[in-house]
Amino acid sequence: MTEARTQELAKLLIVDDLPENLLALEALLRDDGLEIHAAQSGEAALSLLLEHEFALALLDVQMPEMSGFELAELIRGSSRTAHLPIVFVSAADHEPSYTFRGYENGAVDFLFKPLDALAVKSKVRVFTELYLKRRELRRQLIEVEAAHARQEQLLAELKQTQAELQRALRMRDEFMSMVSHELRTPLGVMTLDQSVRRDRLERGDLAYFSEERLRAMVARDARQLRSMTRLIDDMLDVSRIQHGKLSIRPSRTDLGELAQHIVDDYTVHFGQVPLHSRIEAGVVGDWDDSRISQVLVNLLSNALRYGEGRPVTVEVGATADGQARLAVTDQGRGISAHDQARIFEQFERGAAAGNSPGLGLGLFISRHFVRAHGGDIRLCSEPGRGACFEVLLPMSGQPQSSC
Ligand SMILES: Nc1ncnc2c1ncn2[C@@H]1O[C@H](COP(=O)(O)OP(=O)(O)OP(=O)(O)O)[C@@H](O)[C@H]1O
Ligand SMILES: [Mg+2]
């Protein structure tokens, strides 16, 4: 493209009211590598000037309607053509008496009739070369500016990548310390329990293992194992989501039954928090029941964890537009707009989390599960007024390729 532009011919404008003079000039300059445009009047010249960018204009001074000088003044008056070099072609006795007003503004020269072929050619060459050099400089300037702009853009992209990299590194470090901390707690309890049991056994103290104590131990072990298994499952799910390997296996599922089981289970384990359910019968669709259970468990455990011990409600129903609706509402401290914008991202925890255990993965995973069914999770909350997480699912949970 650059080459094509440099090879473009410089354009020369010749203006004379006599066609024979134009022909003579064209014949004289034809072989000088110029694109020649001829005009027989000032007006015709002005319309050519609107269309083309000229390297030089050769103006006959004496023309009937608009003299060469008048035309030159108009040329100088327009910002587009103000710097066009002008050579007046005049009879020798006319030029000195005329003071051309635009003279100081740009290159002006004179040729006198009868025209000397060599003088014409050399003047035209000097102006044309000047023009071509200027044009090349302008082109280079544009290229430099474009390169500069590209450089700035690359720099901005680099800065952004660097910031993202730093965030990723920070997240990795935080993640490592969170995971170790989360695993340490149940492992610590189990290690302690295990060493107490081993000591008792070594001392032959079988009385220590009363039925009541054994039951408590088994329950504690189950709790610690559940919390570690959940942590590892969450991490595996995140990895599946990140690698686009999350798969869902829809089967005929009664959402009300599924929710009721989970609510009953929670009532047994967390009986201290009032748990209400408003479950419509017959909300049946094609969903991956284990994934949807996981979503409800995540929302419910959040409501119990962050709901400040106040009643929690689980609802199942259908929306007016025929989607299934599963909602978990609590009356806890609520979620600020700032937190709402980020808690669905991985490892993001809001103000309510404090120092409580958790990796900030539950909502991230849940939203992916629901979206994989073609649905979505909506959050409605205000600080101090509790939170309502609403899951909307199309009745047939079409697997979505985006997850
Ligand atoms: N019902 C709620 N009320 C107030 N804040 C909530 C509620 N549910 C979630 N949050 C906020 O959103 C954050 C993200 O929740 P999410 O379930 O993703 O992670 P987590 O509960 O912190 O940890 P994890 O679920 O991985 O154990 C929580 O840390 C909490 O700050
Ligand atoms: Mg959670």
TrEMBL record:
Keywords: Coiled coil, Kinase, Phosphoprotein, Transferase. The keyword NADP does not apply. It comes from the Bacteria. The modification 4-aspartylphosphate is found at D60. It catalyses: ATP + protein L-histidine = ADP + protein N-phospho-L-histidine. Residues 11-128 form the Response regulatory domain. Residues 178-397 form the Histidine kinase domain. Its EC number is 2.7.13.3. Residues 134-171 form a coiled coil. CDD domains: HATPase, HisKA. SUPFAM superfamilies: ATPase domain of HSP90 chaperone/DNA topoisomerase II/histidine kinase (SSF55874), CheY-like (SSF52172), Homodimeric domain of signal transducing histidine kinase (SSF47384). One of its GO terms (molecular function) is phosphorelay sensor kinase activity. This is histidine kinase. It comes from Roseateles puraquae.
